[in-house]
Amino acid sequence: MLRIAVLGVGRIGRMHAANIAAHPRASLAGVFDVNEAAATEIAESLATVKFAAAEDAFASPEVDAVLIASSTATHADFIEMGVAAGKPVLCEKPIDLSLERVDACAAKIAGTSVPIMLGFVRRFDIGHRAVKQAIESGRIGELHQLVITSRDPGMAPDAYIEVSGGIFRDMTIHDFDLARYFLGEEIATVTATGSRLVNPALMERCGDYDTVTITMATASGKQCLITNSRRAVYGYDQRVEAFGSAGMITTDNKPLDNTRFHGAGLTGQAPALLDFFIERYDDAFAAVIGEFVDAAEQGRAPEVGFADGREALVLAEAALKSIAEGRTVSTSEIG
Amino acid sequence: MLRIAVLGVGRIGRMHAANIAAHPRASLAGVFDVNEAAATEIAESLATVKFAAAEDAFASPEVDAVLIASSTATHADFIEMGVAAGKPVLCEKPIDLSLERVDACAAKIAGTSVPIMLGFVRRFDIGHRAVKQAIESGRIGELHQLVITSRDPGMAPDAYIEVSGGIFRDMTIHDFDLARYFLGEEIATVTATGSRLVNPALMERCGDYDTVTITMATASGKQCLITNSRRAVYGYDQRVEAFGSAGMITTDNKPLDNTRFHGAGLTGQAPALLDFFIERYDDAFAAVIGEFVDAAEQGRAPEVGFADGREALVLAEAALKSIAEGRTVSTSEIG
Amino acid sequence: MLRIAVLGVGRIGRMHAANIAAHPRASLAGVFDVNEAAATEIAESLATVKFAAAEDAFASPEVDAVLIASSTATHADFIEMGVAAGKPVLCEKPIDLSLERVDACAAKIAGTSVPIMLGFVRRFDIGHRAVKQAIESGRIGELHQLVITSRDPGMAPDAYIEVSGGIFRDMTIHDFDLARYFLGEEIATVTATGSRLVNPALMERCGDYDTVTITMATASGKQCLITNSRRAVYGYDQRVEAFGSAGMITTDNKPLDNTRFHGAGLTGQAPALLDFFIERYDDAFAAVIGEFVDAAEQGRAPEVGFADGREALVLAEAALKSIAEGRTVSTSEIG
Amino acid sequence: MLRIAVLGVGRIGRMHAANIAAHPRASLAGVFDVNEAAATEIAESLATVKFAAAEDAFASPEVDAVLIASSTATHADFIEMGVAAGKPVLCEKPIDLSLERVDACAAKIAGTSVPIMLGFVRRFDIGHRAVKQAIESGRIGELHQLVITSRDPGMAPDAYIEVSGGIFRDMTIHDFDLARYFLGEEIATVTATGSRLVNPALMERCGDYDTVTITMATASGKQCLITNSRRAVYGYDQRVEAFGSAGMITTDNKPLDNTRFHGAGLTGQAPALLDFFIERYDDAFAAVIGEFVDAAEQGRAPEVGFADGREALVLAEAALKSIAEGRTVSTSEIG
């Protein structure tokens, strides 16, 4: 049994805690949250202990591994503590909003063999896995164009948006990682376009965008397009299209159920899409825990690690620079 | 140029006339209708002559072939006139509402080599052709079950229903023919169920049904299910499913255009279906004229002939007898 | 915590046991199987006790309720034991292959308030629930035609087929129950057609059919069509179409994942269907346990009970009689 | 009757000639082609006259209007001749490969009231019309993102590619026009990415790209993404997605027919897409002639005119400049 402590028990931390409890070879070793009342409630409802401080989780001999679902500002610190304690870490994205902090963390943990996994859940979706398999098996030939559509069902609360680090670091970061996953080679150039169409006042205030497109290319010329919006009224729009020399494979959205309605003046109407990521990617979140447990047990690097977390941030920085300077940015400029 | 006269210029006759005019090797040789005003108007708008009597069309040396789209009661007479005149005939379904009259007609024209074609338009639909091809090529293996869904977009006027001969002879007859086309062997047994759900008062008065299902089987055990309704609010519902030992092939409905709408609470909504048969089967109607012209030119039997028209009527009789007697009826009982 | 014992730990019993263990308010109280080795293995792997005899489960003060997944011949006995012991029972279909035995059981447990639930899992599928909701809310108007397609991915082993009671009692029984669920009124007439196309020799030997269609009607004229096959090479074909005066709602199949492949000469290709019922109805099986736990806790009748199990058998008997006598059979003839 | 002469009778000119002949209020007034043999053959097969020179068509009193389907280099000259002769002109895209020549032509014809129409056929597709209608009616709210996918089924011959003016002026030009049609406001910025993946050697030699993406934005922030490839093995990939504040509307591809095949290991397989533009846009090409005839009869400007042809070229120039300079280009820089 891998005993995993969960730091941060907001919506996503609780979901992870439930998946840990449901895993046949993992158990929930305790929880911590700066919101003490929340931590108490969750500890009780999940029949586990509450840590007085995050440090206690890392120090406890009853804890084998740590899942970090706390606020972004704590991620790098907790990763460093995990490595120091020799405890495998599964960390939610992003590592940090600042690439400098990420690099400092990287320097500090350089050479460690402690498994560190980044929670890029979409790599573990069964449909995305099938797309990856179609690319790797040669079923679509050489990959030429990758089109990722990712639109949230609705704007997060203002308070969240204000500290999110902006759409590229908060939302597109998943698509950046997915792009790297599918492209199979590093991204050389990034061009981004940003608009303020959903909530212009808020976006103006935050210097952020709610509607963006990103075009990327690898050195060999493979192209990737990402389309993001903070609000799709029909639900959580999550699609991938991989176009190659011998074919195309797509993954489609998931509606609430598989009914289709035909009525006066209309046919084939499906329900709204699953809303939101916890519903859409429920199987994938369970698979994330599965991979983390496997990697921790085997003492090996997980499928998606610290370097992947850093690369996704580099792409976010490049996108910001591209908009600021109105030009295509080379990832080598970011570092 | 095959010069074709059109008898009966109601909605369907006019459509045929336009298709004849558009065919590269056919021309419209004149029209006749008992409604003289209608005949005059059509003759003028299509720049053709108006015959004073149907007999004149058969007698005219300017007429090579005749298309019969007049009222059902005239069909058998006109077929006989066509054969007598040695002019190929394309006749709308059914040959007659009475099997006795059909058999009398058959006796009268026995041995003729004049091409006689029945207007079972659905055989000429590109989708249905592809289903037939999938069956014949072995792509779905041995055919086991055939499911035909056929629902009209709305009830015809009472006056039409009253003289239609009932749903089996008027509407299901197309499905009976399609079943024979796909099954590739004769139908041995028929069981039918009829309900009065759309317009019970009218159905009661006519001794007719507006909602029916028919189950049929061939001697080798192939099964066919037909589902009919006189009114589908979402349009003209026309589907076929051929299930076999090695796979299944279906043809789906045709919406007005290929858009899909996603809105609040719904996704994937297509427009209503093409409504009605002239729109849904427009290419197939043109192909009917094509086959008729080819067969007339070559002096050969068309793909679908008099015997097919009779067999479809036999199945309609069997369905009526099945409901009347609450049992499965053998087609050999009908004759 | 509702402590539930599981009798019979074949494929389906094990799946139920896992769902019980995963339910927040239920626990696995022990298992029994005539195959002692299997029972031992399962008891160990699920960390529960093994009963030496089924009777022990009913007698144990550590058991609050019993799930029956043993062979069909034991079902009625175990239901009677459950009622005698005052323990809620969840019983897999069918109650028995013989309507006489079912009626004897009914007589014996008459008047009991012990919750008895039949495991008609399809009622608990989210798509079927949505269809039911569309019917009840009036979204499709008055229901006119119900079309249920149900094809297994492959023939069960000969040994299973030989004792299954035949396709109507073993396989169609789920469709019969689903038909009753959607129609919302009792079925008055049944007409069936049976063919031997998948494995004629085996079917001949067993007096069974592998390819059947059933047409049913209610007193008010609602029609229901069921299409069954023992083998669909593309997977477990499970579809429902509810057609009404104001529209139509369908539930479609579930492929292995939501990818679509476009290649040379083809487009839109999805993977095979989920194969088989445990995968296709996984959420529904969990919901069955949920309803059983709720009903047991509340001491109320479950959504689907003994009478539903009996009615489905009546329809199976009617179908058999219909084939034997080549006629439409009234359910009132069966009793 | 509007008597229309056709200049250039290659594949597209012949198709236009047939549509003119089929239009109820238009007739084919003659053809011209620099390939005299081709012109003779077409004139004979369509029973029309052959002009010895293009000038003769403009000069003939038997010609009311002219359709230009000759090589690109002749377009601007012929437009000028049409205006000089007071004869309405329908010109295939592009007006010219050089913006200078286009502007010179514009200067020469400035102030004319002779109807000039550009053959941007996609605006006349029924699906695209429905998308436009959804945008204008407010059905999708404010348009935020427009995604146009346009991939040819296969590379044109080398000789064609070499004189095509490059992918942006030859192929993307249709998408540029479609973008302008849907966006409803002028495009302010263009960023393009080009790769050589289908035929790198040829592309290198021509200084062209076979795989491109273009991102564009209007002044108000509406975004448009275009994805192009010179070769999709599954057919002619033509899709549009319009995403707005209140919903999304898409148009999907058109397969050869509406069948779906389910076989061992696969489901829902449709045939390849209609291949190529003459098949995919057949109804739209007929509608182009319809609009041209209407505009000519009414002496009004057609729905899509000279200025639209110029604007599409401006976007092509901007795309080329964007790749050359690795930056986002403002359309105001092009002029």
Can you give me a brief rundown of this structure?
4 copies of one chain form a homotetramer. With 335 residues, the first copy, chain A, is α/β, with parallel strands linked by helices.
Report on the structure:
Four copies of one chain form a homotetramer. With 335 residues, chain A is α/β, with parallel strands linked by helices. The first copy, chain A, folds into two domains: 2-114, Rossmann fold; 123-277 and 311-333, 2-Layer Sandwich (Dihydrodipicolinate Reductase, domain 2). Chain A contains 13 helices and 14 strands. Chain A has helices at 11-22, 36-45, 54-59, 72-85, 99-109, 126-136, 158-163, 167-183, 200-206, 277-280, 282-298, 306-325, 331-334, and strands at residues 2-7, 26-32, 65-68, 89-91, 116-118, 143-151, 187-195, 211-218, 223-229, 237-244, 247-251, 259-263, 266-271, 329-330. In chain A, the strands form three sheets. Chain A has a seven-stranded mixed beta sheet. In chain A, α4 runs parallel beside α5 (99-109) and α5 runs antiparallel to α12. The longest helix of chain A is centred in the last third of the chain and has 20 residues, at 306-325. The radius of gyration of chain A is 20 Å and the shape is globular. At the B-D interface, α6, β11 and β12 of B face α6, β11 and β12 of D. β12 of chain A pairs antiparallel with β11 (247-251) of chain C.
